[in-house]
Amino acid sequence: MSYVRLCRVIINNSVARFTEYRGNALTHITVSFLWIALRFIFVGTIFSYTNNIGGWTKEMIWVLVLLFPFIDSIGQAIFGTMAWGLHDAIVGGELDGTFVKPKSSLFLNSFIRFDLQPFITGMLQGVVFVWALVHAMPNISIIQIGTGIVAILCALIVHYSVSLLIGCIGFWFPRTENLLEAWYEVLGAASYPLTVLPKALYQIFLTILPVALISFIPASAFLGVLSWKLFVLAIGVTMVFLLASIGLWHVAIKRYSSASS
Amino acid sequence: MMKKYFLVTRNSVEETLQYRFKQLVWALSELVSLLFMPFIWLSLYTNDKVAIGEMSSTDIISYFVLVSLVSMVTTTYFSRRIAEDINKGSLSADLTKPYSYIFWRIFREIGIRMSYTLFAPVLFFVGRLLFPEYIVLPANIAAFGWFLFFLIIARILCILSEVIVGFFAFWFEQIWGFRSVRWLLDSLVGGRLIPISFFSLTIQSFVYALPFAYMLGIPVEVYLGKITGTDLYIKALLGLAWVGVFSALIAFMWYRGLKRYNGGGI
User: Fold this and answer.
1) Whose CB among A103, A113, B157, B257 lies 3.0–4.6 Å from B170's, allowing a Cys bridge?
2) What is this structure's pTM?
Protein backbone atom coordinates (compact mmCIF):
# COMPACT_ATOMS: atom_id res chain seq x y z
CA MET A 1 0.00 0.00 0.00
CA SER A 2 1.43 3.36 -1.02
CA TYR A 3 1.65 6.25 1.46
CA VAL A 4 -0.96 8.16 -0.56
CA ARG A 5 -3.42 5.29 -0.29
CA LEU A 6 -2.57 4.89 3.38
CA CYS A 7 -3.32 8.58 3.97
CA ARG A 8 -6.67 8.15 2.21
CA VAL A 9 -7.56 5.24 4.53
CA ILE A 10 -6.49 7.31 7.56
CA ILE A 11 -8.73 10.20 6.48
CA ASN A 12 -11.69 7.88 5.76
CA ASN A 13 -11.34 6.41 9.25
CA SER A 14 -11.28 9.88 10.78
CA VAL A 15 -14.50 10.80 8.97
CA ALA A 16 -16.16 7.66 10.33
CA ARG A 17 -15.03 8.50 13.89
CA PHE A 18 -16.18 12.09 13.54
CA THR A 19 -19.68 11.16 12.40
CA GLU A 20 -19.97 8.68 15.28
CA TYR A 21 -19.08 11.29 17.94
CA ARG A 22 -20.73 14.40 16.47
CA GLY A 23 -22.03 15.67 19.82
CA ASN A 24 -18.60 15.50 21.38
CA ALA A 25 -17.10 17.30 18.39
CA LEU A 26 -19.67 20.06 18.64
CA THR A 27 -18.81 20.57 22.32
CA HIS A 28 -15.09 20.82 21.46
CA ILE A 29 -15.75 23.38 18.73
CA THR A 30 -18.03 25.47 20.98
CA VAL A 31 -15.60 25.44 23.90
CA SER A 32 -12.64 26.30 21.67
CA PHE A 33 -14.51 29.42 20.53
CA LEU A 34 -15.36 30.28 24.13
CA TRP A 35 -11.61 30.27 24.83
CA ILE A 36 -11.10 32.63 21.91
CA ALA A 37 -13.80 34.88 23.38
CA LEU A 38 -11.89 34.81 26.68
CA ARG A 39 -8.73 35.97 24.91
CA PHE A 40 -10.70 38.77 23.27
CA ILE A 41 -11.99 39.94 26.65
CA PHE A 42 -8.45 39.74 28.05
CA VAL A 43 -7.01 41.76 25.17
CA GLY A 44 -9.92 44.21 25.37
CA THR A 45 -9.31 44.74 29.09
CA ILE A 46 -5.59 45.38 28.57
CA PHE A 47 -6.24 47.79 25.71
CA SER A 48 -8.70 49.77 27.80
CA TYR A 49 -5.55 51.02 29.58
CA THR A 50 -3.12 51.37 26.66
CA ASN A 51 -2.94 51.57 22.87
CA ASN A 52 -0.06 49.12 22.39
CA ILE A 53 1.76 46.28 24.13
CA GLY A 54 5.42 45.88 23.25
CA GLY A 55 4.78 47.82 20.02
CA TRP A 56 1.75 45.69 19.06
CA THR A 57 -1.63 47.35 18.52
CA LYS A 58 -4.95 45.75 19.44
CA GLU A 59 -5.60 44.61 15.85
CA MET A 60 -2.14 43.00 15.69
CA ILE A 61 -2.70 41.19 18.99
CA TRP A 62 -6.00 39.83 17.66
CA VAL A 63 -4.09 38.25 14.79
CA LEU A 64 -1.63 36.71 17.24
CA VAL A 65 -4.32 35.51 19.61
CA LEU A 66 -6.32 33.90 16.79
CA LEU A 67 -3.34 32.30 15.09
CA PHE A 68 -2.30 30.15 18.06
CA PRO A 69 -5.55 28.12 18.37
CA PHE A 70 -5.59 27.66 14.58
CA ILE A 71 -2.05 26.21 14.52
CA ASP A 72 -2.66 24.14 17.63
CA SER A 73 -5.90 22.66 16.26
CA ILE A 74 -4.28 21.71 12.95
CA GLY A 75 -1.39 20.17 14.90
CA GLN A 76 -3.81 18.23 17.08
CA ALA A 77 -5.56 16.94 13.97
CA ILE A 78 -2.38 15.73 12.27
CA PHE A 79 -0.21 14.43 15.12
CA GLY A 80 -2.25 14.96 18.33
CA THR A 81 -2.79 11.24 18.83
CA MET A 82 0.95 10.62 18.65
CA ALA A 83 1.69 13.54 20.96
CA TRP A 84 -0.73 12.44 23.66
CA GLY A 85 -0.40 8.69 23.20
CA LEU A 86 3.24 7.96 22.41
CA HIS A 87 4.45 7.88 26.00
CA ASP A 88 1.77 5.42 27.08
CA ALA A 89 2.35 3.33 23.95
CA ILE A 90 6.07 3.08 24.77
CA VAL A 91 5.58 2.28 28.45
CA GLY A 92 2.73 -0.12 27.70
CA GLY A 93 4.68 -1.90 24.96
CA GLU A 94 2.10 -1.09 22.30
CA LEU A 95 4.50 -0.11 19.52
CA ASP A 96 5.14 -3.69 18.41
CA GLY A 97 2.56 -3.58 15.63
CA THR A 98 4.10 -0.55 13.97
CA PHE A 99 7.54 -2.19 13.72
CA VAL A 100 6.35 -5.23 11.82
CA LYS A 101 4.47 -3.28 9.15
CA PRO A 102 6.15 -2.48 5.81
CA LYS A 103 6.04 1.26 6.40
CA SER A 104 8.13 3.72 8.38
CA SER A 105 7.48 3.20 12.09
CA LEU A 106 7.89 6.93 12.63
CA PHE A 107 5.24 7.72 10.01
CA LEU A 108 2.84 5.14 11.43
CA ASN A 109 3.28 6.33 15.01
CA SER A 110 3.06 9.99 14.08
CA PHE A 111 0.20 10.19 11.59
CA ILE A 112 -1.79 6.96 11.82
CA ARG A 113 -4.78 8.65 13.41
CA PHE A 114 -5.86 11.86 11.72
CA ASP A 115 -8.45 13.58 13.89
CA LEU A 116 -11.14 15.38 11.90
CA GLN A 117 -12.71 17.19 14.85
CA PRO A 118 -9.73 19.49 15.65
CA PHE A 119 -9.20 19.89 11.90
CA ILE A 120 -12.71 21.28 11.44
CA THR A 121 -12.24 23.42 14.57
CA GLY A 122 -8.96 24.65 13.09
CA MET A 123 -10.57 25.52 9.77
CA LEU A 124 -13.25 27.58 11.53
CA GLN A 125 -10.57 29.27 13.63
CA GLY A 126 -8.65 29.87 10.41
CA VAL A 127 -11.62 31.75 8.94
CA VAL A 128 -11.76 34.02 12.01
CA PHE A 129 -7.97 34.45 11.82
CA VAL A 130 -8.16 35.54 8.16
CA TRP A 131 -10.92 38.01 9.08
CA ALA A 132 -8.71 39.50 11.84
CA LEU A 133 -5.72 39.60 9.49
CA VAL A 134 -7.64 41.46 6.78
CA HIS A 135 -8.91 43.84 9.45
CA ALA A 136 -5.38 44.50 10.75
CA MET A 137 -3.64 44.46 7.34
CA PRO A 138 -6.00 45.62 4.59
CA ASN A 139 -3.06 45.99 2.16
CA ILE A 140 -1.22 42.77 2.94
CA SER A 141 1.50 41.91 0.40
CA ILE A 142 2.21 38.60 -1.32
CA ILE A 143 5.56 38.44 0.52
CA GLN A 144 3.82 38.76 3.87
CA ILE A 145 1.40 35.97 2.96
CA GLY A 146 4.23 33.79 1.66
CA THR A 147 6.48 34.22 4.70
CA GLY A 148 3.45 33.79 6.96
CA ILE A 149 2.54 30.46 5.38
CA VAL A 150 6.16 29.25 5.60
CA ALA A 151 6.23 30.35 9.26
CA ILE A 152 3.00 28.41 9.94
CA LEU A 153 4.61 25.30 8.42
CA CYS A 154 7.64 25.88 10.66
CA ALA A 155 5.29 26.24 13.65
CA LEU A 156 3.62 22.90 12.88
CA ILE A 157 6.99 21.18 12.40
CA VAL A 158 8.38 22.60 15.65
CA HIS A 159 5.21 21.64 17.52
CA TYR A 160 5.46 18.12 16.09
CA SER A 161 9.18 17.86 16.81
CA VAL A 162 8.88 18.97 20.43
CA SER A 163 5.98 16.55 20.95
CA LEU A 164 8.04 13.72 19.45
CA LEU A 165 11.12 14.62 21.50
CA ILE A 166 9.05 14.61 24.68
CA GLY A 167 7.41 11.32 23.72
CA CYS A 168 10.80 9.73 23.03
CA ILE A 169 11.99 10.56 26.55
CA GLY A 170 9.57 7.82 27.62
CA PHE A 171 11.96 5.22 26.15
CA TRP A 172 14.46 6.10 28.93
CA PHE A 173 12.29 7.58 31.67
CA PRO A 174 8.85 5.97 32.00
CA ARG A 175 7.58 8.44 34.61
CA THR A 176 7.70 11.54 32.46
CA GLU A 177 4.19 11.42 31.04
CA ASN A 178 3.35 14.94 32.17
CA LEU A 179 6.18 16.62 30.25
CA LEU A 180 3.86 17.19 27.30
CA GLU A 181 1.29 18.86 29.52
CA ALA A 182 4.11 21.04 30.84
CA TRP A 183 4.97 21.98 27.23
CA TYR A 184 1.34 22.97 26.72
CA GLU A 185 1.41 25.06 29.90
CA VAL A 186 4.43 26.95 28.55
CA LEU A 187 2.73 27.22 25.14
CA GLY A 188 0.16 29.44 26.83
CA ALA A 189 2.74 32.21 26.33
CA ALA A 190 2.46 31.77 22.55
CA SER A 191 -0.67 33.93 22.47
CA TYR A 192 1.14 37.04 23.68
CA PRO A 193 3.63 39.41 22.05
CA LEU A 194 6.95 38.09 23.28
CA THR A 195 8.57 41.49 22.74
CA VAL A 196 7.42 42.38 26.28
CA LEU A 197 9.83 39.80 27.74
CA PRO A 198 13.35 40.57 28.96
CA LYS A 199 15.85 39.93 26.16
CA ALA A 200 17.33 36.76 27.69
CA LEU A 201 13.90 35.16 28.14
CA TYR A 202 12.92 36.22 24.63
CA GLN A 203 16.02 34.48 23.22
CA ILE A 204 15.19 31.32 25.18
CA PHE A 205 11.65 31.32 23.75
CA LEU A 206 13.11 31.74 20.26
CA THR A 207 15.60 28.88 20.44
CA ILE A 208 15.81 26.46 23.37
CA LEU A 209 12.10 26.48 24.22
CA PRO A 210 10.74 27.55 20.81
CA VAL A 211 7.38 28.91 21.96
CA ALA A 212 7.91 32.03 19.80
CA LEU A 213 7.89 29.92 16.65
CA ILE A 214 4.43 28.57 17.34
CA SER A 215 2.50 31.78 16.71
CA PHE A 216 4.54 34.91 17.46
CA ILE A 217 6.85 34.45 14.43
CA PRO A 218 4.04 33.50 11.98
CA ALA A 219 1.88 36.40 13.20
CA SER A 220 4.85 38.78 12.86
CA ALA A 221 5.39 37.50 9.31
CA PHE A 222 1.77 38.07 8.31
CA LEU A 223 1.83 41.53 9.88
CA GLY A 224 5.05 42.48 8.10
CA VAL A 225 7.02 43.12 11.30
CA LEU A 226 9.32 40.09 11.02
CA SER A 227 12.92 40.78 10.06
CA TRP A 228 14.59 38.50 7.51
CA LYS A 229 17.17 37.61 10.16
CA LEU A 230 14.44 36.27 12.47
CA PHE A 231 12.74 34.49 9.59
CA VAL A 232 15.95 32.64 8.69
CA LEU A 233 16.58 31.90 12.37
CA ALA A 234 13.08 30.43 12.66
CA ILE A 235 13.69 28.12 9.68
CA GLY A 236 17.06 27.12 11.16
CA VAL A 237 15.61 26.35 14.58
CA THR A 238 12.81 24.37 12.92
CA MET A 239 15.31 22.22 11.00
CA VAL A 240 17.38 21.62 14.14
CA PHE A 241 14.32 20.49 16.12
CA LEU A 242 13.04 18.30 13.28
CA LEU A 243 16.39 16.57 12.77
CA ALA A 244 16.92 16.20 16.52
CA SER A 245 13.50 14.60 17.00
CA ILE A 246 13.89 12.19 14.07
CA GLY A 247 17.42 11.35 15.24
CA LEU A 248 16.25 10.73 18.79
CA TRP A 249 13.44 8.50 17.53
CA HIS A 250 15.88 6.28 15.64
CA VAL A 251 18.20 6.06 18.64
CA ALA A 252 15.31 5.50 21.02
CA ILE A 253 13.59 2.64 19.18
CA LYS A 254 16.77 0.60 19.56
CA ARG A 255 16.07 0.62 23.29
CA TYR A 256 12.50 -0.57 22.86
CA SER A 257 11.94 -4.05 24.18
CA SER A 258 8.15 -4.35 23.96
CA ALA A 259 6.00 -4.61 27.10
CA SER A 260 7.04 -2.44 30.03
CA SER A 261 10.18 -1.22 28.31
CA MET B 1 -13.89 8.22 62.21
CA MET B 2 -11.60 10.54 60.25
CA LYS B 3 -8.57 8.37 60.96
CA LYS B 4 -9.10 6.22 57.88
CA TYR B 5 -9.22 9.32 55.66
CA PHE B 6 -6.01 10.70 57.15
CA LEU B 7 -4.49 7.33 56.30
CA VAL B 8 -5.68 7.77 52.71
CA THR B 9 -3.95 11.18 52.62
CA ARG B 10 -0.76 9.71 54.07
CA ASN B 11 -0.77 6.88 51.53
CA SER B 12 -1.25 9.26 48.60
CA VAL B 13 1.57 11.49 49.92
CA GLU B 14 3.86 8.45 49.96
CA GLU B 15 2.64 7.44 46.50
CA THR B 16 3.28 10.96 45.18
CA LEU B 17 6.79 11.00 46.61
CA GLN B 18 7.57 8.05 44.33
CA TYR B 19 7.03 10.42 41.39
CA ARG B 20 9.11 13.39 42.51
CA PHE B 21 10.24 14.37 39.00
CA LYS B 22 6.65 14.46 37.80
CA GLN B 23 5.69 16.73 40.68
CA LEU B 24 8.60 19.04 39.97
CA VAL B 25 7.64 19.31 36.29
CA TRP B 26 4.06 20.19 37.25
CA ALA B 27 5.09 22.79 39.74
CA LEU B 28 7.59 24.44 37.40
CA SER B 29 5.30 24.44 34.37
CA GLU B 30 2.47 26.03 36.36
CA LEU B 31 4.90 28.61 37.62
CA VAL B 32 6.40 29.40 34.20
CA SER B 33 3.02 29.82 32.53
CA LEU B 34 1.71 32.14 35.23
CA LEU B 35 4.90 34.16 35.63
CA PHE B 36 4.48 35.33 32.04
CA MET B 37 1.52 37.51 33.03
CA PRO B 38 3.47 40.20 34.97
CA PHE B 39 5.47 41.03 31.83
CA ILE B 40 2.30 41.61 29.83
CA TRP B 41 0.77 43.84 32.48
CA LEU B 42 4.05 45.61 33.23
CA SER B 43 4.22 46.73 29.59
CA LEU B 44 1.24 48.98 30.38
CA TYR B 45 3.16 50.73 33.12
CA THR B 46 6.05 51.66 30.83
CA ASN B 47 3.53 53.63 28.77
CA ASP B 48 1.78 55.20 31.72
CA LYS B 49 3.27 55.42 35.20
CA VAL B 50 0.01 55.91 37.09
CA ALA B 51 -1.61 53.09 39.07
CA ILE B 52 -4.06 50.94 37.13
CA GLY B 53 -7.02 49.38 38.89
CA GLU B 54 -5.57 50.66 42.20
CA MET B 55 -2.40 48.69 41.53
CA SER B 56 1.10 50.06 41.06
CA SER B 57 3.67 48.29 38.88
CA THR B 58 5.14 46.68 42.02
CA ASP B 59 1.66 45.53 43.07
CA ILE B 60 1.04 43.92 39.72
CA ILE B 61 4.22 41.82 39.92
CA SER B 62 3.46 40.86 43.51
CA TYR B 63 -0.10 40.01 42.47
CA PHE B 64 0.89 37.58 39.71
CA VAL B 65 3.71 36.00 41.72
CA LEU B 66 1.24 35.37 44.53
CA VAL B 67 -1.37 34.11 42.05
CA SER B 68 1.21 31.54 40.90
CA LEU B 69 1.96 30.44 44.45
CA VAL B 70 -1.66 30.37 45.64
CA SER B 71 -2.59 28.47 42.48
CA MET B 72 0.00 25.83 43.33
CA VAL B 73 -1.73 25.31 46.67
CA THR B 74 -5.36 25.47 45.57
CA THR B 75 -5.54 24.14 42.01
CA THR B 76 -6.73 20.57 41.53
CA TYR B 77 -7.47 18.44 38.50
CA PHE B 78 -9.15 15.30 39.80
CA SER B 79 -12.57 15.63 38.14
CA ARG B 80 -11.20 13.46 35.34
CA ARG B 81 -10.44 10.68 37.82
CA ILE B 82 -13.97 10.84 39.24
CA ALA B 83 -15.40 10.69 35.71
CA GLU B 84 -13.21 7.65 34.96
CA ASP B 85 -14.44 5.91 38.11
CA ILE B 86 -18.03 6.49 36.99
CA ASN B 87 -17.56 5.71 33.29
CA LYS B 88 -15.44 2.59 33.79
CA GLY B 89 -17.56 1.28 36.64
CA SER B 90 -14.74 1.18 39.20
CA LEU B 91 -16.97 3.28 41.46
CA SER B 92 -18.92 0.06 42.16
CA ALA B 93 -16.00 -1.37 44.13
CA ASP B 94 -15.70 1.83 46.18
CA LEU B 95 -19.40 1.74 47.04
CA THR B 96 -18.96 -1.60 48.78
CA LYS B 97 -16.11 -0.37 50.96
CA PRO B 98 -16.59 1.05 54.47
CA TYR B 99 -15.88 4.65 53.58
CA SER B 100 -17.46 7.56 51.76
CA TYR B 101 -16.29 7.67 48.14
CA ILE B 102 -16.45 11.48 48.11
CA PHE B 103 -14.30 11.82 51.24
CA TRP B 104 -11.92 9.16 49.98
CA ARG B 105 -11.39 11.05 46.71
CA ILE B 106 -11.00 14.41 48.48
CA PHE B 107 -8.52 13.18 51.08
CA ARG B 108 -6.59 11.33 48.42
CA GLU B 109 -6.38 14.52 46.37
CA ILE B 110 -5.20 16.49 49.42
CA GLY B 111 -2.32 14.02 49.70
CA ILE B 112 -1.51 14.24 45.99
CA ARG B 113 -1.33 18.04 46.13
CA MET B 114 0.58 18.10 49.43
CA SER B 115 3.96 18.40 47.71
CA TYR B 116 2.79 21.56 45.88
CA THR B 117 1.38 22.94 49.10
CA LEU B 118 4.79 22.54 50.71
CA PHE B 119 6.71 23.67 47.61
CA ALA B 120 4.87 27.03 47.43
CA PRO B 121 6.17 28.47 50.74
CA VAL B 122 9.71 27.36 49.83
CA LEU B 123 9.43 29.23 46.54
CA PHE B 124 7.96 32.20 48.38
CA PHE B 125 10.94 32.47 50.75
CA VAL B 126 13.47 32.00 47.93
CA GLY B 127 11.65 34.69 45.93
CA ARG B 128 11.52 36.95 48.97
CA LEU B 129 15.29 36.65 49.43
CA LEU B 130 15.98 37.38 45.75
CA PHE B 131 13.31 40.02 45.04
CA PRO B 132 12.21 41.56 48.36
CA GLU B 133 10.69 44.57 46.56
CA TYR B 134 8.20 42.35 44.69
CA ILE B 135 7.59 39.46 47.09
CA VAL B 136 6.06 41.54 49.82
CA LEU B 137 5.11 40.39 53.32
CA PRO B 138 1.55 40.89 54.57
CA ALA B 139 0.88 44.21 56.31
CA ASN B 140 0.29 42.61 59.74
CA ILE B 141 -0.56 39.38 61.53
CA ALA B 142 -4.31 39.98 61.13
CA ALA B 143 -3.94 40.37 57.35
CA PHE B 144 -1.95 37.13 57.26
CA GLY B 145 -4.63 35.42 59.35
CA TRP B 146 -7.34 36.56 56.93
CA PHE B 147 -5.19 35.42 54.02
CA LEU B 148 -4.91 31.93 55.54
CA PHE B 149 -8.67 31.87 56.10
CA PHE B 150 -9.38 32.75 52.45
CA LEU B 151 -6.69 30.34 51.30
CA ILE B 152 -8.49 27.50 53.08
CA ILE B 153 -11.82 28.62 51.57
CA ALA B 154 -10.13 28.69 48.13
CA ARG B 155 -8.72 25.19 48.62
CA ILE B 156 -12.09 23.81 49.70
CA LEU B 157 -13.97 25.50 46.83
CA CYS B 158 -11.46 24.25 44.26
CA ILE B 159 -11.80 20.69 45.54
CA LEU B 160 -15.61 20.87 45.70
CA SER B 161 -15.87 22.36 42.21
CA GLU B 162 -13.79 19.50 40.83
CA VAL B 163 -16.12 16.99 42.51
CA ILE B 164 -19.13 18.76 40.93
CA VAL B 165 -17.53 18.71 37.47
CA GLY B 166 -16.57 15.04 37.93
CA PHE B 167 -20.13 14.10 38.96
CA PHE B 168 -21.45 15.35 35.61
CA ALA B 169 -20.15 11.98 34.37
CA PHE B 170 -23.30 10.44 35.88
CA TRP B 171 -25.24 12.18 33.10
CA PHE B 172 -22.65 12.78 30.36
CA GLU B 173 -20.03 10.38 29.04
CA GLN B 174 -17.59 13.23 28.32
CA ILE B 175 -17.00 15.93 30.91
CA TRP B 176 -14.24 17.66 28.92
CA GLY B 177 -16.55 20.55 28.04
CA PHE B 178 -17.53 21.14 31.69
CA ARG B 179 -13.89 21.05 32.79
CA SER B 180 -12.94 23.49 30.09
CA VAL B 181 -15.75 25.92 30.91
CA ARG B 182 -14.80 25.77 34.59
CA TRP B 183 -11.20 26.65 33.67
CA LEU B 184 -12.37 29.37 31.37
CA LEU B 185 -14.44 31.02 34.09
CA ASP B 186 -11.60 30.54 36.55
CA SER B 187 -9.24 32.34 34.15
CA LEU B 188 -11.66 35.12 33.25
CA VAL B 189 -13.38 36.00 36.51
CA GLY B 190 -11.17 34.21 39.04
CA GLY B 191 -8.29 36.67 38.81
CA ARG B 192 -5.90 34.32 37.02
CA LEU B 193 -5.48 36.41 33.86
CA ILE B 194 -6.94 39.75 34.91
CA PRO B 195 -6.89 41.18 38.45
CA ILE B 196 -10.52 41.66 39.44
CA SER B 197 -9.87 45.28 40.39
CA PHE B 198 -9.08 45.98 36.71
CA PHE B 199 -12.74 45.51 35.79
CA SER B 200 -15.27 48.34 36.06
CA LEU B 201 -17.02 48.67 39.44
CA THR B 202 -20.27 47.19 38.10
CA ILE B 203 -18.51 44.11 36.73
CA GLN B 204 -16.43 43.85 39.93
CA SER B 205 -19.52 43.62 42.13
CA PHE B 206 -20.86 40.86 39.89
CA VAL B 207 -17.53 38.99 39.81
CA TYR B 208 -17.10 39.17 43.60
CA ALA B 209 -20.49 37.51 44.00
CA LEU B 210 -19.37 34.49 41.94
CA PRO B 211 -17.44 31.59 43.49
CA PHE B 212 -14.49 31.76 41.07
CA ALA B 213 -12.94 34.87 42.63
CA TYR B 214 -12.82 33.03 45.98
CA MET B 215 -10.70 30.27 44.44
CA LEU B 216 -7.73 32.50 43.59
CA GLY B 217 -8.11 36.25 43.22
CA ILE B 218 -9.59 37.13 46.62
CA PRO B 219 -6.92 35.39 48.78
CA VAL B 220 -4.24 37.26 46.84
CA GLU B 221 -6.03 40.61 47.14
CA VAL B 222 -6.49 40.04 50.88
CA TYR B 223 -2.78 39.28 51.20
CA LEU B 224 -1.89 42.49 49.37
CA GLY B 225 -4.24 44.50 51.60
CA LYS B 226 -6.59 45.43 48.75
CA ILE B 227 -9.59 44.09 50.66
CA THR B 228 -9.98 45.40 54.20
CA GLY B 229 -12.50 46.37 56.90
CA THR B 230 -16.16 45.36 56.61
CA ASP B 231 -15.51 44.12 53.09
CA LEU B 232 -13.44 41.28 54.56
CA TYR B 233 -16.35 40.05 56.70
CA ILE B 234 -18.81 40.27 53.79
CA LYS B 235 -16.48 38.31 51.51
CA ALA B 236 -15.76 35.76 54.26
CA LEU B 237 -19.49 35.13 54.64
CA LEU B 238 -19.96 34.89 50.88
CA GLY B 239 -17.04 32.45 50.63
CA LEU B 240 -18.53 30.27 53.36
CA ALA B 241 -21.93 30.50 51.66
CA TRP B 242 -20.41 29.18 48.44
CA VAL B 243 -18.86 26.27 50.36
CA GLY B 244 -22.36 25.50 51.64
CA VAL B 245 -23.92 25.78 48.17
CA PHE B 246 -21.24 23.56 46.59
CA SER B 247 -21.58 20.95 49.36
CA ALA B 248 -25.35 20.85 48.96
CA LEU B 249 -25.01 20.54 45.20
CA ILE B 250 -22.56 17.65 45.59
CA ALA B 251 -24.94 15.86 47.97
CA PHE B 252 -27.80 16.37 45.50
CA MET B 253 -25.76 15.22 42.48
CA TRP B 254 -24.47 12.16 44.37
CA TYR B 255 -28.01 11.19 45.43
CA ARG B 256 -29.45 11.62 41.94
CA GLY B 257 -26.38 10.35 40.15
CA LEU B 258 -26.24 7.05 42.02
CA LYS B 259 -29.81 6.37 40.92
CA ARG B 260 -28.65 6.65 37.30
CA TYR B 261 -25.38 4.80 37.82
CA ASN B 262 -25.45 1.29 36.37
CA GLY B 263 -21.86 0.16 36.97
CA GLY B 264 -21.08 0.38 33.26
CA GLY B 265 -17.70 -0.93 32.30
CA ILE B 266 -17.66 -3.82 34.77
Assistant:
1) B257
2) 0.83
